[in-house]
Amino acid sequence: MTDRPKISDKLRSAIEARLFSSARPAAEKEIAALVETEGSVVGEILQSLQASSSGPERGIRLEQVGGGWRFVTRPEHDGLLRKFFEVSERSRLSLAALETLAIIAYRQPITAPEISELRGVNSTAVIHTLF
Questions:
Q1: Fold for domain 95-130?
Q2: Per the confidence metrics, is the pTM higher than 0.85?
Q3: DSSP secondary structure, 50-91, as one string
């Protein structure tokens, strides 16, 4: 028996833990640097994780989005999860939050002081709420 499968299993486990522990997508380069291995190995492991989580019997799946990877719940479980978290409707954004998002989308990358200067008011609380 060789050590290669053990190393691969450890890497797979570490990558899975990293993806599960964060709400934001993780780029392959970021994951490769974290686990100190080549990007091609990380890519293979991500493909393997995606394949193993794609079955209809799974409640979550791995998807590639925004230049990174993240675990997401299946859309068909939305009603159940809303009930579990007691979310009756999607929250709506305030006008200040919509204005701030529009500035961020149009002028990215942008800093919080620049946003406040453009809006003419302190935007720290709105930015914090959006995070």
A1: Arc Repressor Mutant, subunit A (1.10.10)
A2: no
A3: HHHT-STT-SEEEEEETTEEEEEE-GGGHHHHHHHHT--SPP
